[in-house]
Design a protein that fits this description.
The complex is a heterodimer of chains A (113) and B (114). Chain A has 113 residues and is mainly β. Chain A contains no helices and eleven strands. Chain B contains no helices and eleven strands. In chain B, strand 5 and strand 6 form a beta hairpin. Chain B is globular. The chains are: A mainly beta (113), B mainly beta (114). Chains A and B meet through strand 4, strand 5, strand 9 and strand 10 of A and strand 4, strand 5, strand 9 and strand 10 of B.
């Protein structure tokens, strides 16, 4: 069973507009949610995270929103730039004490110039 | 600053051969992880090690073994490779203390099993 789901495999956005990437989770026993960005032939790089006790975290052009009642998080990128074109993974960290991280299947973002 | 280093970066094996993927981190992190990435499947956890001397199974451990040799190194072994193990493998580590939830990843090891 997929505990962390990204239902949109791909997304295309015009440069300068907002990109919104979505993620749903099914388990309430997560204490941190994270977003990673991945370019081809490179390892995932950390973008932004949010603690389960918060509902918003912002870092420059990137904002993550957490809706615990809906078990949903989203990543907003404003304004979108061509260099943002990559695969984005959301992840959740289990609170079991072993700090196990579960990843979604990824969303490929293409920002059109 | 090396961060998380994986070797080899590329490997081709024949079915039934064995090999070990090496991972080392120089950030004094306690926890280390092995993931595999397959198209449409995202990153799936194979094994992890919460601290030196401990290892635990993740979502897809079958066909793999791991060794946490010391605090720096965490190796992944395929005893008898199968075509289903063709994948890109990523090692990661988690900072101790300061907690933003972040994992640090290596650049990956691309394995092809014929």
């Amino acid at each position: 069973d997929q505990q962390v789901k990204q239902n949109s495999p791909s997304l295309s956005v015009q440069e300068g507009r907002i990109s919104i990437l979505n993620c749903d989770y099914t388990n309430s026993m997560f204490d941190y949610f994270l977003w990673y960005k991945k370019y081809p032939a490179e390892g995932p790089t950390f973008l932004i995270s949010i603690s389960s006790i918060k509902d918003k975290n912002e870092d420059g052009r990137f904002t993550v929103f957490l809706n615990k009642s809906a078990k949903h998080l989203s990543l907003h990128i404003v304004p979108s730039q061509p260099g943002d074109s990559a695969v984005y993974f959301c992840a959740a960290r289990a609170t079991s004490g072993t700090y196990k991280y579960i990843f979604g299947t990824g969303t490929r973002l293409k920002v059109l110039a | 600053n090396a961060g998380v280093t994986q070797t080899p970066k590329f490997q081709v094996l024949k079915t039934g051969q064995s090999m070990t993927l090496q991972c080392a981190q120089d950030m004094n992190h306690n926890s280390m992880y092995w993931y595999r990435q397959d198209p449409g499947m995202g990153l799936r956890l194979i094994y992890y090690s919460a601290s030196e001397g401990t290892t635990d199974k993740g979502e897809v451990p079958n066909g793999y073994n791991v060794s946490r040799l010391n605090k720096r190194e965490f190796s992944l072994r395929l005893e008898s490779a199968a075509p289903s193990q063709t994948s890109v493998y990523f090692c990661a580590s988690r900072p101790t203390g300061r907690d933003t939830g972040e994992l640090f990843f290596g650049e990956g090891s691309r394995l092809t099993v014929l």
